[in-house]
Automatic annotation (TrEMBL):
Signal peptide: none annotated. The chain crosses the membrane at residues 40-62, 99-118, 138-158. It is a multi-pass membrane protein. GO terms for biological process: endoplasmic reticulum organization; granulocyte colony-stimulating factor signaling pathway; vesicle-mediated transport. Keywords: Endoplasmic reticulum, Membrane, Transmembrane, Transmembrane helix. Belongs to the jagunal family. This is Protein jagunal homolog 1. It comes from the Eukaryota. It is found in: Endoplasmic reticulum membrane. InterPro entries: Jagunal. GO terms for cellular component: endoplasmic reticulum membrane. Its main location: endoplasmic reticulum.
Length: 183
């Protein structure tokens, strides 16, 4: 090509290196998707910590029960939802497909399933609240069923996007793996 102050190769002006400066699209996508998944995992950790704090305050009776209600049954298995997030984070440094697949499967089992169960468990109480205006459990003056339904909706979206981006990341990793096998 061209050297500093030295002669140029014949037939080139020294600008034909640009195509080698680009990063392959699946590597760009991998970095972007990892970043998005990390943001979702950190959001999930915040939700998890809030639920954990509610459980600790409820069980240790740090505040009266009219301030913070006892946890619903679905919250206990949801505590295991931190494991898929950790598996997802462990899969990133070396693009470990196995950990990412385990993370996706366990997200369905430990995250989405308790959320679905929670929506069904709280439905009669939500129905009673909105039909008759009666709430028996409270979290800092708000109806516990309303607050927890909000948590369920946000958590379901976080986990849904996490699964979507994980699937796209998995596809990206498979693309790079297939290209390496072709070479």
């Amino acid at each position: 090509m061209a050297s500093r102050g030295g002669p140029r190769a014949t037939g080139t002006d020294g600008s034909d290196f640009q195509h080698r400066e680009r990063v392959a699209s699946h590597y760009q996508m991998s970095v972007t998707l990892k970043s998005e998944i990390k943001k979702l995992i950190y959001t999930h950790v915040c939700i998890w910590l809030l639920l954990m704090a509610q459980m600790c305050v409820g069980h240790l009776k740090l505040l009266p029960h009219d301030q913070v209600a006892m946890p619903y049954q679905w919250e206990y298995p949801y505590l295991l939802s931190i494991l898929p997030s950790l598996l997802g984070l462990l899969s990133f440094p070396r693009n470990n497909i196995s950990y990412l697949v385990l993370s996706m499967i366990s997200t369905g089992l430990f995250s989405m399933a308790p959320l679905i169960y929670g929506a069904m468990e709280m439905f009669p109480m939500a129905q009673q609240l909105y039909r008759h205006g009666k709430a028996y459990r409270f979290i800092f003056g708000f109806s516990a069923v309303s607050v927890m339904y909000l948590v369920v909706v946000v958590a379901a979206q976080v986990h849904g996007w996490q699964l979507y981006y994980s699937k796209k990341l998995l596809d990206s990793w498979f693309t790079s793996t297939q290209e390496k096998k072709k070479k």
